[in-house]
Specification:
little secondary structure, 69 residues
């Protein structure tokens, strides 16, 4: 995974979910955000390819989305 803000790699452990309060080690940006999610797509409805996900207004702020990958 790469940080949406600084483009640096964020180390993750396979099978361990990203916590809602985690921050990028390089720039301190929130990690559990829409813009770091595999479902994020600017051209999709609500900018998310996951049709069951709730609408998130601030795509660059930490959120509680259960579909984050």
């Amino acid at each position: 995974m790469f940080c949406f803000s600084c483009q640096k790699e964020i180390p993750t452990i396979p099978g361990v979910p990203v916590g809602r309060r985690e921050e990028c080690n390089s720039c301190s940006a929130d990690v559990h955000v829409c813009m770091n999610c595999a479902h994020y797509d600017r051209s999709a409805y609500n900018e998310c390819k996951e049709s069951s996900a709730d609408y998130v207004k601030e795509k660059d702020r930490s959120n509680f989305c259960d579909y984050f990958t």
